[in-house]
Amino acid sequence: MSLSDLPLDELRGYRSLSVEPADFDQFWAKTLTEARGHDLAARFEPVATALSTLEVLDVTFAGFGGHPVKGWLVLPAGAREPLPVVVEYIGYGGGRGLPHSHLLWASAGFAHFVMDTRGQGAGWNGGDTPDPVGSASSFPGFMTRGVEDPETYYYRRLFTDAVRAVEAARAHPLVDASRTAVLGASQGGGITLAVAGLVPDLVAAAPDVPFLCDFPRATTITDRHPYREIGNYLKTFRGRTETVTRTLGYFDGVHFAARALAPALFSVALEDQTCPPSTVFAAFNAYAHEDKAIEVYDFNDHEGGGAYQQAAQLAWLPARLTA
């Protein structure tokens, strides 16, 4: 594979042409107000594992529509005082998986909350959270479920779940709510940007090769799924491009980035054909907080930096969580 997007010097100045809906803030304020009308009802149940240095809690909380959403809370064994918390979101098709898949952040001394992804979890890392809401015709996958109206779009539910996950994590007595960071890769990175734009008091955000950014460019520059799901939908439903584009404007990571109030560490891979680098830089360049950085992986596809990016996060995040 070779570079297929803009040169790096052009990426650093690239700006998205995504159009922000005039009622973007009102739409999300209304959505979150409705969600908070349901009792969060966060439950934390101890899980027996063979992890001698960590403790695991099986979490259930009320997300969008009051629907039950699952998660894991992983803590350093023997923790007695409230800890900074890292809330993590999962990539496309994945679920929360098994507890021993999530050792990094609790091993570094933090509380680690992993949100399951409603309706997903069959592609890799099994999930435990159904999506009880149906939709009209959609292309296989999640990108076009309810896509002709922002009220019914799948990611309205998922982004709302993600905000409620922060609230659930903060509800545990061993979590210091004032020191909350959010992170995730790919879809998880896109969700991270949404939460960074919707939750004003985070201390850090780390979107890794983020998905769900700069839809107008992403849907026309790459043939790779999941973005191609949108093109395939419009290939069948001719004449609906304007309607779908309007809906996607409410969920574009570029617009959430423009509202973010927390320091951020991004990553991008210059040979990424799943989340083309221009779409990642669109969000990075729009990101509102001046304390922001981006790790660039020159010859990588969507795997990005992998463990190298985790090392970068381990070097960057503690100072913000423990300040």
TrEMBL record:
Entries under InterPro entries matching the protein: AB_hydrolase_fold, AXE1_dom, CE7
Family annotation (Pfam families): AXE1 (PF05448)
Any GO MF annotation of the entry: carboxylic ester hydrolase activity
Active site (UniProt): 186 (nucleophile), 272 (charge relay system), 302 (charge relay system)
Annotated Acetyl xylan esterase domain residues: 1-317
GO terms of biological process kind: polysaccharide metabolic process
Annotated substrate binding sites: 92
UniProt-recorded name of the protein: Acetylxylan esterase
Organism: Streptomyces paludis
